[in-house]
Amino acid sequence: DAGVIQSPRHEVTEMGQEVTLRCKPISGHNSLFWYRQTMMRGLELLIYFNNNVPIDDSGMPEDRFSAKMPNASFSTLKIQPSEPRDSAVYFCASTHPGGFGNQPQHFGDGTRLSIL
Amino acid sequence: SQQGEEDPQALSIQEGENATMNCSYKTSINNLQWYRQNSGRGLVHLILIRSNEREKHSGRLRVTLDTSKKSSSLLITASRAADTASYFCATALGGTYKYIFGTGTRLKVLA
Question: Fewest Cβ atoms closer than 10 Å to its Cβ: which of A28, A45, A69, B48?
């Protein structure tokens, strides 16, 4: 089976531009997570969805960040407008249905975002 | 501070030696998971240990869990150069899907 697919793998853009990151979870998984990884702050959970519904977005840093999951096979994370401090690696992960925290997370290979 | 914190932050060993990493957490848990991250890649799940388990093995991996001390350790035996990676522990806050990852241990295995 294909793993979690993220696109693009790399994104370089100028400050103020809109950035859209995409994620396709593993088929049959019903929970999806967006993380941000930086050297300073480590791996931070931004938002997670269960059955396409956002459950907890308390990790979203600012209103400039938004995430959607229109269907079970696609999610987007959007930053508008982008700022240099948003530069990081953004990961998407999905899990199979199961008890709370009882399932391993399957990660994509991330999008390395650089805001100039 | 983070739910999970690993120590040491970095570890360098010779091939064939054992590597031990520790993780501490703050709240009650249902289980604890360990992940590996190779440079430039996503995290890969290694092993899950439930709160009612004290030890678990998977190949060259051995994980222990001490819920009274809120700590876990990951032992990699007979390390190989290919084990060079960062290792993270993760827990889910009780009753939620909210996974919290630790700060990670960077392991370097020298050939």
Answer: A28
